[in-house]
Amino acid sequence: MKQYNFNAGPSILPAEVIRKTAEAVLDFEGHGLSVLEISHRAKYFQPVMDEAEQLMKELLGVPEGYRVLFLGGGASLQFCMVPYNLMEKKSAYLNTGVWAKKALKEAKGFGEAVEVATSADANYTFIPTDYEVPQDADYFHITTNNTIYGTELSDAKLADIYKKKGNVTLVADMSSDILSRPVDVSQYGIIYGGAQKNLAPAGVAFVIVREDILGKVSRHIPTMLDYRTHIEGGSMFNTPPVLPVYTAMLTLRWLKEFGGVAAIEKRNIEKAGLLYNCIDHSRLFVGTAREEDRSRMNVCFVLKPEYQELQDDFFKFASERGMVGIKGHRSVGGFRASIYNAMDVEGVKALVDCIHDYEKKI
């Protein structure tokens, strides 16, 4: 029976990317060595890093003056690196979920970290809009997609943020929606994220940083936490996570061949529309996120109160139909279908059919 991977992360990757990565584990591009054992200093690995950086720039339309980095430590290390490199006295954070809250907590160790707004009291079911960005902040941090709660900053709300930020440097954690839609990189000082949602296996983080915002803080920055170190070292100051970088390059190739970010956005809109339409017309289920803030990447839904006793039964039914990873995060409960770039329309239709068939038997 076919398995459909709806895991929130590590998550689905394109089948051809997995196949090519597996081939490279046995023999990296005909060199007679595994990608697991080649030196990152080998002349035949440098083109991998170069191509990965070039494709990120091309697919996202990264302007001049920015550098693309691939670093270890995941997005969680970036919670620390951002304030280390940018925060002199004050920063501002929009708290829209667990990861935004963790980033804010980290920044509080570097000075005054202001929470401009939060939807925590409503279990992060919406994105706040009634706030101002303090213009004396060194930067303003947002999380564009909230994997656990199924909310995402829409294009309209991003446009509002671009106005609100004024001259303040904007920083974004785009771990779970990077490359899923076009983004105006010129509005940001730093975009970062873990790669294990839309790009690569766990173990590497991407960073897109505007060089002219660096070197402004008075504090000493440890060598490994200074973005300038990794810019000068071409993401290879120390040994990079070679396998995830290689897989990231393959995923970026796949996305380019698909037609780029605009083409994948069109498919993502179709997929999310199919699943949300199913939930909205369901007799048993209801979505958890406010409609205007719904994520295209992570669709969260729960059983209606009168059907709560069916929780385990539906999970068992769906699992037997090949639906993998649909159990919701413990802070939301219910179910979550993560439909990242590599999930095709067929997979979403299979989940929709699963929901419909379960409703028929109840």
Task: Describe the secondary structure blueprint for this structure.
Layout: E1 4-5, H1 15-26, H2 46-60, E2 66-71, H3 74-86, E3 90-95, H4 98-107, E4 112-118, E5 139-143, E6 145-146, E7 151-152, H5 155-164, E8 169-173, E9 190-194, E10 205-210, H6 227-232, H7 242-258, H8 261-280, E11 285-287, E12 298-303, H9 311-320, E13 323-324, E14 335-338, H10 345-361
Helix pairs in contact: 1-7, 2-7, 3-4, 8-10
Keywords:
362 residues; Aspartate Aminotransferase, domain 2; Aspartate Aminotransferase, domain 1; 2 domains; seven-stranded mixed beta sheet; three-stranded antiparallel beta sheet; 10 helices
Structural write-up:
- With 362 residues, this protein is an alpha/beta fold.
- The chain has 2 domains: 15-258, Aspartate Aminotransferase, domain 2; 260-361, Alpha-Beta Complex (Aspartate Aminotransferase, domain 1), CATH 3.90.1150.10.
- The protein is 36% helix and 17% strand.
- The chain has 10 helices and 14 strands.
- The strands form 4 sheets. It has a 7-stranded mixed β-sheet with strand order 2-10-9-8-5-3-4, sandwiched between helices.
- Strand 6 (145-146) and strand 7 form a beta hairpin.
- The radius of gyration is 21 Å and the shape is globular.
- The mean pLDDT is 97.
